[in-house]
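User: These chains co-purify. Model them together.
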Amino acid sequence: NAGVTQTPKFQVLKTGQSMTLQCAQDMNHNSMYWYRQDPGMGLRLIYYSASEGTTDKGEVPNGYNVSRLNKREFSLRLESAAPSQTSVYFCASSGTRNQPQHFGDGTRLSIL
Amino acid sequence: AQTVTQSQPEMSVQEAETVTLSCTYDTSENNYYLFWYKQPPSRQMILVIRQEAYKQQNATENRFSVNFQKAAKSFSLKISDSQLGDTAMYFCASLSGGGADGLTFGKGTHLIIQP
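Assistant: Joint model of the two components:
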């Protein structure tokens, strides 16, 4: 079982470039999440999708957009990348909101 | 809003010893969930243990157990017979009963198991 798959695993961008991080899960989960992890910090929620067709802002949504393409896929887009968005990005999913979240392996994104 | 505090940035113990990681949280809700996640150098986020706030019994998973003190809003993780593979960052996290806002994480404790 693949679980939660994130692509790419590493990426370097220049300031102002755009990029979409992809996430797919094969566990038939309803809820999906995007977090970012900065040095010395725990993960912080960017956006989440409680079910197909819905998305909501988390703690740090500025500079990001998301799309819940279908039940399996939840993408995160940076329209104009900034150095402050250099981070490790994690996608997660859960069967229902209250069940444990399963995480992908993360994407390390550097913006120069 | 929920907050989670881990006051121990780093801990180091000898292999086979028992170690306890501290976590306190703040929430205004009666229904919520608490978790410990492990993040080894591989960067994966691995669920260690889960506690439902309405259950008084402390959760256990093999060598891992929690001490859940609801009135004190404390949720510590005890690792017994520690192993070299337990070396990792450990994050405490909370989830509201509605689960609408995703997990709220502490800043983590870096646990080092010495041979």
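DSSP finds no helices and twelve strands in chain B.
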